[in-house]
Amino acid sequence: MQKNFTGKIVGVALFAALSFVVSLLEFPIFPAASFLKLDFSAVFILLGGFMYGPIAGIVICAVKELLRFIMGSSTGGVGEIANFLVITAFIIIPTVVYRFKKGLPVVILTLVSGVLAMTAAALVSNRLIMFPLYMGNGAAETFSSLWYYIIFFNLIKGAAVGAIVFLLYKRVSFLFKKINLQSSPENDTIEQ
Fold it and tell me: Which residues pair with 28 in a beta bridge?
């Protein structure tokens, strides 16, 4: 029991560290909406969520965003809060369902659901949190001219992260099983 708990803490910490480091390699994909920066930190959050459960995934995301804030946030923490909400919306469906039902079709369906949830959460968080705090009275007008960039950006990001997780999961879970960091054997592969 103690060994599994310690292994889970080490695994969560490792995924949080990897997620933070990868989050520093961000880049805009739409010049007209350069505030939308693509990074692949959610890959490690989702992998951690699959391996250790949805709560662990949320903790990994929270630690990553806290580290981003501590290291000097350009948004005063507002962007980190919004990103936490968006990524949590992305990982919650796949990681919760995976605890109860495994298999390739289930993973694909839940990843698609996660991308849609993330996109909806991004629209809401940008409209209600980011834009009002940065643009004041002009927030509604600016949002109305940029909302479709938010949709396309999150669909692209979610699809890219989902594809990478899908391709990496078996290799990563095998590695974690091998070094005995994984908390329970039923999570070691995505069944075909």
Answer: 37
Closest CA relative to residue 57, chosen from 96, 21, 31, 28? 96
Query: Are 33 and 150 contacting, i.e. CB atoms less than 8 angstroms apart?
Result: yes
- At residue 91, what is the residue type? I
Contact 7, 181 (CB under 8 A): yes
* Helix locations, 54-138, DSSP H: 54-70, 78-100, 104-125, 131-135
pLDDT (tens digit, 0 to 9) for every residue of the chain, 192 residues total? 566 778 789 889 999 999 999 999 999 999 999 989 999 999 999 999 988 899 999 999 999 999 999 998 877 788 899 999 999 999 999 999 998 987 778 888 999 999 999 999 999 999 998 888 877 788 889 899 999 999 999 999 999 999 999 888 777 767 666 644 444 444 444 444
The answer to whether 130 touches 78, Cβ cutoff 8 Å, is: yes
- Contact yes or no for 38/27 (Cβ under 8 A): yes
Q: What is the DSSP string of 9-74?
A: HHHHHHHHHHHHHHHTS-EES-GGGTT-EE--HHHHHHHHHHHH-HHHHHHHHHHHHHHHHHTT-S
User: For residues 23, 25, 29 and 31, what is the CA-based torsion angle, rounded to 10 degrees?
Assistant: 110
What is the residue type of 8? K
